[in-house]
UniProtKB/TrEMBL annotation:
GO cellular component labels: plasma membrane
Domain ABC transmembrane type-1 per the UniProt entry, residue ranges: 54-257
Main location: membrane
Keywords: Cell membrane, Membrane, Molybdenum, Transmembrane, Transmembrane helix, Transport
Protein name, entry field: Molybdenum transport system permease
Function text: Part of the binding-protein-dependent transport system for molybdenum; probably responsible for the translocation of the substrate across the membrane.
SUPFAM superfamilies: MetI-like
Places the protein is found: Cell membrane
Family matches, as InterPro entries: MetI-like, MetI-like_sf, ModB_ABC, NifC_ABC_porter
TM region positions: 12-34, 54-80, 92-113, 133-154, 183-203, 238-257
Source organism of this protein record: Modestobacter muralis
Keyword hit for Nucleotidyltransferase: no
Similarity field: Belongs to the binding-protein-dependent transport system permease family. CysTW subfamily.
Stored PANTHER family: MOLYBDENUM TRANSPORT SYSTEM PERMEASE PROTEIN MODB (PTHR30183:SF3)
Length: 268
């Protein structure tokens, strides 16, 4: 009994700072909920500007997640299972967007994919298409920022997966591609799902790289974070409504991932 009380108790020197931390993190969110114009949420969400920003954000985040899955899962396999030299350097380069200021990422994208960029100049001369300040640029910027979240999640799942199943498939004559499709992917499916959710949520909330590389044009490149930034100056109620939507998405993301982070056997 005494051991149970000792394990479940919180030392007094830790309790006060913990409560202060909770207050510091939760009170701003509570203030957003308390000050929300609940009677105006319906009309605000139905307004053309807010509706366009919502639709564009949902579509672009979904497309960015799809691109990240297509490219990020193979990259995670290379980082986790291959024997290539320099994997640690490659991993560092791949995860740089996690710590890089998003605005810097937008500048980097502009220098490479802009009309006068390293790749963008060739693209413009060959096709006449300029990527920056288009809806496609929004997807590119969000993919650049969000893909590392998927990669590190899938890489962790691959490292934790039991390789004996893959060895058994190889013993039975399956080639590497068949083993990857029929054995590896099902094994790491929860990690892929968790990474996709994180990637989608990060893409939905992207601001810096988007406004730098894609601009802020209503109906074309103005996503929800950009709309919040502008609405805060001229229509605070619309800014609060959009902020509530982003808050709800963030909470839903954490709830979806709670079982993976804390384990299914942990009770609330």
């Amino acid at each position: 009994m005494s051991r149970r009380r000792r394990d479940g108790g919180v030392p007094a020197p830790l309790l006060v700072p913990a409560l202060l931390a909770v207050a510091f993190l939760v009170l701003p969110l509570a203030g957003l909920v308390v000050r929300a114009p609940w009677s105006q949420i319906g009309p605000q969400l139905a307004s053309p500007g807010v509706g366009q920003a919502l639709r564009l954000s949902l579509v672009s985040a979904t497309l960015a997640t799809a691109v990240s899955l297509l490219l990020g899962v193979p990259l995670a396999w290379v980082l986790a299972r291959s024997t290539l030299r320099g994997r640690s350097v490659l991993r560092a380069l791949v995860t740089v967007p996690l710590v890089l200021p998003p605005v810097v990422g937008g500048v980097a994208l502009f220098l490479v994919l802009g009309r006068q960029g390293i790749v963008g100049r060739w693209l413009y001369e060959a096709t006449g298409f300029s990527l920056p300040f288009t809806t496609a640029a929004v997807v590119v910027a969000e993919t650049f920022v969000a893909m590392p979240f998927l990669v590190i999640s899938v890489e962790g799942a691959l490292r934790a997966a039991d390789a004996r199943f893959e060895d058994a498939a190889a013993t039975l004559g399956a080639d590497r591609w068949t083993t990857f499709r029929r054995v590896t992917l099902p094994l790491v499916a929860p990690g892929i799902a968790a990474g996709a959710v994180l990637c989608w949520a990060r893409a939905l909330g992207e601001f810096g790289a988007t406004i730098t590389f894609a601009g802020n044009f209503p109906g074309t490149t103005q996503t929800m974070p950009l709309a919040v930034y502008l609405a805060l100056q001229r229509d605070p109620e619309a800014a609060i409504v959009l902020s509530l939507v982003l808050l709800a998405v963030s909470l839903a993301t954490l709830l979806l991932l709670r079982g993976r982070w804390l384990g299914r056997t942990v009770s609330a």
